[in-house]
């Protein structure tokens, strides 16, 4: 990821959205104090992992601390409201994902306007969701999982990292297209969801790849499919976009 220092400073100065403040910040030495990166999920999930990686990268290159501030709740609404209320000086940044856009369509009254109150700084990563199950489930393919779910309607549970999240919507779409009945169990983030998947409290989960890749490699969860046409092609695209 090669984001020029000048470009980052210009964009970060306007991260909380006032053009006048952006012009002032560009004239100063930025950053002159620690910067917060607010994450709407608990530590350990995919969004948190990406935020910590980019925070470390920025700290090393800009010579100032970038502190991760986890504020889970309401599918990122808690974190988004906190950043919307913060001083628009470029020292409070927000990780934004599909859940933020989904919230704007699900809720009529939010205490912020995503399009009006925020300015994009940079794209961080591309990641498909992974359909994964507890290894104790005797299924080695999506077809076998569907067959088992149909044979046990309402007896299998499906985790998500929040009601209305992309994880939840992917699971509901899977249920609709596969004509299966599974109980949705929402969590406050990806880390607690995958923890319960490993422990057997839930059986099925659509997680983002960074949050589950190590568990997949170690065999603690079994990956059956990804929500992209080709994982290899998708990853190559992400690598090119980050350069």
Q: How many discrete structural domains? A: 2
Could you say which overall geometry the principal axes of the C-alpha atoms support?
elongated
Number of helices: 11
Q: Round the Cα radius of gyration to an integer and report it.
A: 19 Å
Number of strands: 8
In angstroms, what separates the terminal alpha carbons? 4 Å
Listing every helix as H and every strand as E from the N terminus to the C terminus, the arrangement reads HHEHEHEHHEHEHEHEHEH
Strand order of the largest sheet: 6-5-7-4-8
Query: CATH superfamily of the largest domain, please?
Result: Bordetella uptake gene, domain 1
The portion of residues forming beta strands comes to 15-25%
- Class from secondary-structure proportions: alpha/beta
Task: Indicate the low-confidence ranges by residue numbers.
Answer: 5-27, 233-243
pLDDT averaged residue by residue? 84
Identify the CATH class of the largest domain. Alpha Beta
The CATH architecture of the largest domain is 3-Layer(aba) Sandwich
* Share of helix, binned: 40-55%
Q: What name is given to the CATH topology of the largest domain?
A: D-Maltodextrin-Binding Protein, domain 2
How many strands, what sense, and barrel or not for the largest sheet?
Answer: 5 strands, mixed
Layout of strands and helices, then pairs:
Layout (H helix, E strand, L loop, with lengths): L4 H9 L5 H9 L7 E5 L6 H17 L3 E5 L6 H9 L6 E3 L3 H9 L7 H4 L11 E5 L8 H10 L4 E5 L5 H13 L3 E5 L3 H10 L4 E5 H10 L3 E5 L4 H12 L1
Parallel strand pairs: 1-2, 1-3, 5-6, 5-7
Antiparallel strand pairs: 4-7, 4-8
Helix pairs in contact: 1-2, 3-10
């Amino acid at each position: 990821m090669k984001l020029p220092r000048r470009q980052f400073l210009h964009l970060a100065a306007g991260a909380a959205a006032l053009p006048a403040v952006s012009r002032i910040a560009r004239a100063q030495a930025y950053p002159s104090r620690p910067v917060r990166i607010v994450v709407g999920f608990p530590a350990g999930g995919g969004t948190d992992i990406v935020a910590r990686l980019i925070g470390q990268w920025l700290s090393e290159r800009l010579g100032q601390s970038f502190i991760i501030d986890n504020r889970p709740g309401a599918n990122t609404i808690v974190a988004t409201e906190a950043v919307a209320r913060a001083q628009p000086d470029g020292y409070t940044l927000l990780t934004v994902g599909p859940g933020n856009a989904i919230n704007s369509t699900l809720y009529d009254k939010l205490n912020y306007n995503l399009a009006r109150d925020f300015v994009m700084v940079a794209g961080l990563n591309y990641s498909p969701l992974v359909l994964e199950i507890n290894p104790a489930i005797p299924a080695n393919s999506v077809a076998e999982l569907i067959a088992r779910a149909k044979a046990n309607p309402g007896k299998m549970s499906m985790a998500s990292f929040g009601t209305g999240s992309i994880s939840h919507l992917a699971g509901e779409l899977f249920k609709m297209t596969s004509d299966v009945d599974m109980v949705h169990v929402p969590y406050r983030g990806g880390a607690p969801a995958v923890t319960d998947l490993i422990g057997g409290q839930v059986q099925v989960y659509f997680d983002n790849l960074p949050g589950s890749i190590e568990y997949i490699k170690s065999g603690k969860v079994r990956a059956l499919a990804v929500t992209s046409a080709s994982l290899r092609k998708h990853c190559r695209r992400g690598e090119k976009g980050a350069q």
